[in-house]
């Protein structure tokens, strides 16, 4: 039996094979509950495509140790698993509540002070020096992604007095949401750059930039463009980011819809519509897009999700998400592998019901904008559209996309073809980055030099790895030469 996320073959009328498994990717956060080798293996077998390491908790040394362990287990298992490092950014957090969760009751009063030592149910210390200047009486503060909501009723001296308007339980060092337009903190922060340098030296695949407000924040990172450098993922979690979305999409390598802080910046009734709009713009621009935050939240402590959570996951697939992200569910939950298996089942079923024809038709007239060379982008756009039409019209079940940078593969993936996409690259970093791309099986191949040799190798890989049967016709997308920046060759080849 095939593992979750793999591609079993079933017979069809034309002697071809089709992919009947999940196409929407799964990003899972690694934390205390999931960092051991055994659990990592179980999560990979369950369908984890990308492992996320959040740097908001723990030390840099601990994060590096997790990175090295994930990479080692992935190599031992013989399957590419991308690694995404999530920089904290200018995140304001409460000091630790200690080992035991603390409950806040509605209508009780609490004091907020600047500090980073310890928080209690009566005094919450906040690690932001501008707390007294930037928070105003009448502000509403979400703590822990809205688990507790506070109303600022007075300020004086060195503390804020707040009333609990929505009670709940807090643990660890939860985030305290302060309107982003008031924060006097740059993105990325100096500590972000320290962590970034360490992980770039290790060869990290993807880096998420928190609290992005404009394309300028992405450019400040200053890394080499992917795949020489990491794929930069802009987290959309501020109102300014929504307003500057077009420029951010054009600059970043991928986008994350971070619904926790975004939900604090906008009204709750607007959040579902913003999610759809952001996803649509990302796919139109050829960018992978991750939907994140509280997708299966109840599974932190329960063996199964709520009905509403299952619907949320399915609807994120229907919206067009390239990937779905698990946070606390796998970082600190009781059974991380079970959470991944559950996400795998829900997403797979939603993929089966996805309206692929309608989606592709809506995109057919859009132009790609994710390359600095407009001509290259336009050519690749036209060729991937032609590949989608050929695969759909001729019943082709496998598209072999040969790409040094992954650009061609991401362009193809945005059309959501029925055919499986095999992303072949001689660049190991590209292969790792393609683990985030919808419906793509990334494969590392040798650099054969000439286009003809690369095509011959791709067809052989498809046959030898059972992506296609002998006698089946496959579609091949490639450049006219192995160093071309655009996909300007589309061929149909019969597998020998």
Count of separate DSSP helical elements: 17
Which residues sit in consecutive blocks of at least 5 with pLDDT less than 50? 1-19, 368-373
Record the strand order, biggest sheet.
Answer: 1-2-3-11-12-13-14-15
Oligomer: single chain
Give the name of the CATH superfamily of the largest domain. Phosphoenolpyruvate-binding domains
Mean pLDDT: 89
CATH uppermost class of the largest domain: Alpha Beta
- Taken from the alpha-carbon principal axes, the silhouette is elongated
Main structural class: alpha/beta
Percent range for β-strand residues = 15-25%
Overall helicity: 25-40%
Total individual domains: 3
- How far is it from the N-terminal to the C-terminal residue, by CA? 26 Å
Quickly describe the structure.
The radius of gyration is 23 Å and the shape is elongated. It has 496 residues and is an alpha/beta fold.
Textual characterization of the structure:
The strands form 4 sheets. The protein has an 8-stranded parallel beta barrel, surrounded by 6 helices. A 5-stranded mixed β-sheet has the order 6-5-9-8-7, with no helix packed on it. α2 links the parallel β2 (50-54) and β3. The protein is 35% helix and 21% strand. It has 496 residues and is of the alpha/beta class. It is built from 17 helices and 20 strands. The chain has 3 domains: 25-89 and 186-352, TIM Barrel (Alpha-Beta Barrel), CATH 3.20.20.60; 102-182, PK beta-barrel domain-like (M1 Pyruvate Kinase, Domain 3, Beta Barrel); 358-494, 3-Layer(aba) Sandwich (Pyruvate Kinase, Chain: A, domain 1).
């Amino acid at each position: 039996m095939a593992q979750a996320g793999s591609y079993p073959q079933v017979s069809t009328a034309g002697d071809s094979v089709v992919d009947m498994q999940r196409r929407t990717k799964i990003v899972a956060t690694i934390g205390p509950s999931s960092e051991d080798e055994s659990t990592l293996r179980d999560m990979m077998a369950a369908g984890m495509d990308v492992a996320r390491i959040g740097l908001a908790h723990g030390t840099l040394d601990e994060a590096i140790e997790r990175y090295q362990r994930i990479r080692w287990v992935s190599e031992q298992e013989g399957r590419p698993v991308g690694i995404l490092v999530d920089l904290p950014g200018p995140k304001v957090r409460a000091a630790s509540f200690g080992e035991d969760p603390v409950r806040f009751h509605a209508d009780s009063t609490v004091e907020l002070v600047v500090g980073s030592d310890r928080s209690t149910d009566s005094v919450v210390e906040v690690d932001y020096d501008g707390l007294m200047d930037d928070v105003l009486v009448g502000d509403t503060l979400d703590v822990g992604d809205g688990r507790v909501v506070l109303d600022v009723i007075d300020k004086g001296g060195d503390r804020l007095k707040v009333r609990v308007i929505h009670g709940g339980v807090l643990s660890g060092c939860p985030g305290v949401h302060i309107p982003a337009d008031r924060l006097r903190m740059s993105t990325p922060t100096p500590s972000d750059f320290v962590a970034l340098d360490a992980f770039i030296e290790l060869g990290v695949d993807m880096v998420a930039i928190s609290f992005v407000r404009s394309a300028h924040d992405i450019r400040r990172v200053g890394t080499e463009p992917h795949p020489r450098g990491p794929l930069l993922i802009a987290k959309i979690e501020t109102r300014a980011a929504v307003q500057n979305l077009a420029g951010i999409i054009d600059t970043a390598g991928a986008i994350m819809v971070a619904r926790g802080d975004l939900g604090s910046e906008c009204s709750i009734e607007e959040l579902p519509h913003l999610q759809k709009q952001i996803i649509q713009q990302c796919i139109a621009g050829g960018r992978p897009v991750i939907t994140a935050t509280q997708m299966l939240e109840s599974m932190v402590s329960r063996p199964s999700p709520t009905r509403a959570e299952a619907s949320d996951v399915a609807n994120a697939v229907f919206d067009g998400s390239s990937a779905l992200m698990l946070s606390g569910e796998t970082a600190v939950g009781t059974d991380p592998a079970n959470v991944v298996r559950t996400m795998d089942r829900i997403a797979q079923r939603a993929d089966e019901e996805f309206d692929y024809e309608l989606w592709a038709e809506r995109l057919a007239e859009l132009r790609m904008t994710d390359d600095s060379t407009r001509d290259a982008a336009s050519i690749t756009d036209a060729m991937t559209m032609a590949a989608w039409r050929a695969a759909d019209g001729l019943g082709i079940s496998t598209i072999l996309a040969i790409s040094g940078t992954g650009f061609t593969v991401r362009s193809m993936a945005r059309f959501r073809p029925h055919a499986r996409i095999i992303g072949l690259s001689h660049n190991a970093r590209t292969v790792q980055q393609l683990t985030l791309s919808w419906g793509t099986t990334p494969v590392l191949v040798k650099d054969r030099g000439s286009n003809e040799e690369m095509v011959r190798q791709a067809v052989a890989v498809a046959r030898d790895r059972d992506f296609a049967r002998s006698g089946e016709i496959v579609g091949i997308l490639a450049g006219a030469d192995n160093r071309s920046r655009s996909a300007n060759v589309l061929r149909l080849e019969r597998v020998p």
